[in-house]
Specification:
Elements: E1 4-12, H1 15-31, E2 35-40, E3 53-59, H2 62-70, H3 72-79, E4 85-93
Length: 96
């Protein structure tokens, strides 16, 4: 079964409130086999719209990634960033 990768690009409007999301989300990701591979502000923008923060999370499967995103725990964590961050998220199935 191929792994899956959750890729998020974020522009943070209020870092003081966004930190609550950053504190809540990692334990939910781990609960669903998520492993943070990259997370941070340092990136080289080559094409497209620029974002402040980038995150890549590896999951054991596409289903694990979708279950995580749709879980009540993650949806609660997401509430912390509503209105204070612009987020673009995609889940990509890996190659066998």
């Amino acid at each position: 079964m191929p792994k899956a990768y959750w890729v998020a690009r974020v522009n943070i409007k209020n870092p003081d409130i966004y930190r609550f999301y950053m504190e809540a989300a990692p334990s939910v990701l781990r609960k669903h086999t998520g492993r943070i591979l990259a997370r941070g502000d340092k990136a080289e923008q080559l094409e497209g719209q620029e974002y402040h923060r980038h995150v890549i999370v590896e999951f054991d499967s596409m289903q694990d990634a979708l279950d995580c995103y749709n879980s009540p725990e993650y949806q609660t964590a997401r509430e912390f960033r509503n209105g204070i961050a612009d987020v673009e998220t995609v889940i990509i199935e890996g190659v066998d």
